[in-house]
Design a protein that fits this description.
formyl-coa transferase, domain 3, about 15% strand, single chain, alpha/beta, Rossmann fold, 3 domains, three-stranded antiparallel β-sheet
């Protein structure tokens, strides 16, 4: 189970996003609408694109255990700890295995081919494990980063706090009863109008008089005429976004903007890897419904065209290392001079002011550095078995989308642009604010607890009839416990008084779980779920990619959408968890080929002639 109510926290971000989208529509039309956010759909997005993988490959998906994600991409032991290592690219793997390890077998040409490496991941994993174990953690990280190999320590909560302090991620606040204490800064920075915590958590009834006597006044009536639902445009219709981002966090941000009506122009370079081969589902998932412009912005003419395009745009999104956009002449200060109302969202891995700002990192390093990887597992389980999926990419994308919408709201009111910074490490760390606070105030270190709950029992995942079949059950109250016992047929063990209170059930958790599993083993996960849900007891079948694709609830809500991608075929994708009643998001356009929209952008938007475009092609500014 994801720790720390990770799914609920993610849903709260989508709820705020849906509210801002609905406010934007209300300003234009005078109409309100209902925003429905699904916890299940939020969780699906965290599940490493399980829907897309099943649609593309027919793979239902299995738990990875200690297996590497990719050759040499795993959690490895050092002399004094663990490191999360992710040399995904060929050059990163060569730097590790050939230049640094100088392993005689891995230096052979055959071991540089992806297909051969995937067939021999176990051998590579064993050799890398032997190598990392020779180093202290900090020694290994420093050398790996010097060589351009993404790596980070797998941190406990105290270690994560130390790292975040060095990165300047905490600010001081105070509470009437608690006194002063540090809290994480907001997950994003809005430089024109700061996003800050404006007051601490309230005492019970602290503001009753202020609200009762303050006179909130009559409800403000939004401007705009009453329009029929069929005539309402998507919330972001008319908004143009330039997308310089790569891999996942940035593209998932612009995907949501596209789903709600923005025109997203993805600027790509022909000599950089696109990862759009059918064996990579990530590209297809994150780049639907976007236009593709093949433009080399490293050349002066390419930079000039990008700047001209920025003048015609509302939002620019990038996730390069700090300083890259500035060196290209496309930093915020340059763009603002050309268009004061421009909104620029930067998604650096580490805070630009942090000592580690130049580290090369992927989503796996974010989960490792914040302590999430450490917490996401069973007590005492080998750390190499903890989840390796890049959940931070999904979380950061949701935070960045929310920040862009807040900036668009401010622009609609004032005409002012914004520089937005979403340091991915800080954005991810915000989901762990509670264990950090517990450590600061109570000196309590949060530890892995698997599927157990400190306040509920039964609470866990129980084996059912069938191969690798499970159902999650959570009994949250005494009333639910009585209903649970009735569904089980009031067995003698449940009526002898030893399980009469939640305290006794927690104390006898292991024995209780054995009794529950004796019952669930006689039934399929769906049968267990329907019996318990029929009695008002929370229960859910544990679904893999196949189960998600066949879930009638997800299909009825329209969350699963099919897209026919030219050259790749029909693929089903996940939708957006925030369902707006009159303007739902729908990223159902295909992935465009590299440079497919060059003509539309260069001639249609920028007004270049056919001869101009031909000259750009000859100069390899455009391909």
């Amino acid at each position: 189970m994801p720790p720390l109510d990770l799914v609920t926290q993610g849903a709260s971000i989508h709820a705020a996003t849906g509210a801002l989208l609905a406010l934007r529509v209300r300003r234009a039309t005078g109409r309100g609408q209902h925003v429905d956010v699904s916890l299940q759909e939020t969780a699906v997005l965290l599940n490493d694109m399980a829907l897309t993988r099943y649609s593309m490959f027919g793979e239902a998906g299995r738990r990875g255990g200690s297996q590497p994600l990719w050759p040499a991409c795993n959690i490895y032991p050092t002399r004094d700890g663990w490191v999360f290592l992710t040399p995904f690219t060929a050059e990163q793997a060569r730097q590790l295995e050939v230049e640094w390890m100088q392993h005689p077998t891995l230096c052979e040409p055959a071991w540089r081919a992806d297909s051969f490496r995937r067939q021999n991941m176990d051998a590579i994993d064993r050799w890398v494990t032997e190598f990392t174990h020779r180093f202290a953690t900090q020694e290994f990280i420093e050398e790996a980063q010097r060589r351009g190999v993404p790596a980070a320590p797998l941190a406990t909560i105290p270690q994560a706090i130390t790292f975040l302090r060095e990165a300047g991620a905490f600010v001081e606040t105070s509470h009437l009863t608690v006194g002063p204490y540090p809290i994480l800064e907001m997950p994003f920075r809005l430089h024109t109008t700061a996003a800050v915590i404006r007051r601490p958590a309230p005492l019970l009834g602290q503001h009753t008089e202020e609200i009762a006597l303050g006179g909130w006044g009559a409800e403000k009536q939004p401007k705009g005429g009453e329009l029929r639902a069929s005539s309402i445009q998507p919330p972001l219709a008319g908004v143009r976004v330039l997308d310089f981002s790569r891999l996942l966090a940035g593209p998932l941000t612009t995907l949501t903007l596209a789903a709600f009506g923005a025109e997203v122009v993805k600027i790509e370079s022909a000599d950089l890897p696109r990862f759009d081969d059918p064996s990579y589902p990530d590209f297809h998932e994150a780049n639907r419904s976007k236009l593709s412009l093949s433009l080399d912005v490293r050349q002066p003419k390419g930079r000039e065209l990008a700047q001209r395009l920025a003048r015609l745009s509302d939002v620019v999104v990038e996730n390069f290392r700090p300083g890259v956009m500035e060196r290209l002449g496309l930093g915020y200060d340059n763009l603002r001079q050309m268009k004061p109302s421009i909104i620029m969202a930067s998604l650096p891995g580490i805070d630009p002011q942090a000592p580690q700002r130049d580290w090369g990192v992927y989503g796996q390093q974010m989960t490792a550095l914040t302590g999430l990887t450490y917490l996401w597992g069973h007590p005492g389980s080998p750390l190499s078995t903890h989840p390796k999926i890049p959940v931070s990419d999904v979380v950061v994308a949701a935070e960045a989308t929310l920040a862009v919408l807040a900036a668009l709201e401010w622009k609609a009111r004032t005409g002012e642009g914004h520089l937005i910074e979403v340091p991915q490490l800080v954005a991810m760390a915000n989901l762990l604010a509670i264990p950090y606070l517990d450590y600061f105030l109570n000196e309590w270190e949060t530890l892995p607890r698997g599927n157990g709950s400190p306040t509920m029992a039964p609470h866990g995942v129980y084996r059912c009839r069938g191969e690798d079949a499970w159902c999650a059950i959570a009994v949250t109250s005494e009333q639910e416990w009585r209903r649970f016992v009735e569904v089980l047929g009031s067995p003698e063990w449940a009526l002898d008084g030893r399980f009469a209170t939640v305290q006794s059930r927690l104390h006898l958790r292991d024995e209780l779980d054995r009794h529950v599993e004796e019952w669930t083993l006689q039934r399929t996960p769906w049968e267990v779920m329907r019996l318990l849900q029929g009695a008002g007891v929370p229960a859910g079948a544990v679904l893999d990619g196949k189960g998600l694709a066949e879930d009638p609830h997800l299909r009825q809500r329209g969350f699963i959408m099919g897209v026919r991608h030219p050259g790749w075929g029909y693929i089903e994708h996940a939708g957006t968890p925030a369902l707006l009643s009159e303007t739902p998001g729908k990223a159902d356009g295909p992935v465009h080929g590299l440079g497919q929209d060059n003509d539309y952008v260069l001639r249609g938007l920028l007004g270049l002639s056919a001869q101009d475009v031909e000259g750009l092609v000859r100069q390899e500014v455009v391909r």
